[in-house]
Amino acid sequence: MVAYIGIEGIQRIVERVGVATFIEGLAAEIEADYRRWNDFDKSMRHAVHSPAGVIELMPISDGRLYSFKYVNGHPQNTSLGLLTVTAFGVLADVKTGYPLLLSELTVTTALRTAAMSALAARWLARPDSRAMALIGNGAQSEFQAIAFHHMLDIREFRLFDVDSQATAKLVRNLHAFQWPGVQFRPCGSTAEAVRGADIVSTLTADKRKATILTPDMVSPGMHLNAVGGDCPGKTELHPDILHRPDARVFVEFEPQSRMEGEIQQMPAGFAVTEFAHVLGGAAPGRGSADEVTIFDSVGFALEDYSALRYLYKLQRQYNQSREIDLIPHLDNPKDLFALLASTATVAATPAAGLASA
């Protein structure tokens, strides 16, 4: 049997652990895996694009465990009453090739994206950052707010979305946490939201080269968490922001980011730093209080590997295990047909029309 976590399963696990604690624990797992960056067989995700969106497979392995995620991104789905992003994933044993876990990753992707964003900001944002702008208040926004409040003690959230109902939804959901002393400020524009912010997360979904942030909106010392530009032809930052002499760009896996991230707008030789090199001490993080740091986040398979490994541990720790009969179990592994022969009657006579002459 293969362990299985569906929507009800992830709800039970997160309820048991607590959403903020789950995110911080996942961030710790991601950091531990990034610190052993060279152990992993890494590749760009395989993407199939259409005018409506993209479907991707994201594989990775450290030689002991293998994982992949199936994920889509269809920005117009909400107009049909559907989610923009859905996902599931598999964690498998490399030695036997047997899957260990089949899990939903729709909710978990939102949790791991927030965990990765906050983890990067711990290393790249100013330590005294207390105000954050959330540009795009859709499905990812609550997770970002929880992660940044819990892990970086953000006290003021400045909110903007072209859909005011999305902002109202975000404020309503966050008020339920009753965080003492935390302010939520709906704003009338991106420019208003980023004014005075120490950290800016861009979380938009349009599959186009958009300009959500322009150079005049960026102040010295800001940390930009660019999440929404995550496939070819999809960006959020004006290219002049990346060219700022006081800015440095950090990425997850450089070959993938050059195809999909904000740096797809840049020439091939444009300098970036892989986040793993910061954690490993091979490259510096933030250099000064006035430096602009940009985390060009597209989502990388290592983060989903960490999430699946974390879920596999938690579902056993909290006795939340469910199983699915995905792999047959046979007395004789060379006799696969026995699985059918033991449960069905094999016709003793040829089918009509196929009898011998």
TrEMBL record:
Transmembrane segments: none annotated. It comes from the Bacteria. Pfam families: OCD_Mu_crystall (PF02423). This is Ornithine cyclodeaminase. It comes from Polaromonas aquatica. The lineage of its organism: Bacteria, Pseudomonadati, Pseudomonadota, Betaproteobacteria, Burkholderiales.
